[in-house]
Write the structure tokens for this entry.
Amino acid sequence: QVQLVESGGGLVQAGGSLRLSCAASGRTFNYVAMGWFRQAPGKEREFVSTISGGGGMTYYADSVKGRFAISRDNAKNTVYLQMNSLKPEDTAVYYCAAGSRNGLLYRIDEYDYWGQGTQVTVSS
């Protein structure tokens, strides 16, 4: 059974940092893109960042570019999202997802597997 389990969310003050982790199990995702999305209350789920299978390519939403960094450790089947200079508008449930193929994938329908999400709350 394939599972993606996020961790590392929490409450942080504006300007602070958090590091999210996404541990995959049930199969290897070393050859497909992984991504992070987020969903704020009352809003649609939106793309945050994606990383290619080998980790050599990354892509970010404009709203997080320069503040967030995605990485992966294929030996551990884990993807990370380092979030710095957090803002109240970053408050959302953050979801990890495994893509249907390699590359830089930013559409929801390009992802086959999803985690349950982890809450990130940034206070002003």
Remarks:
- The two ends are 40 Å apart (CA to CA).
- The chain has a mean pLDDT of 97.
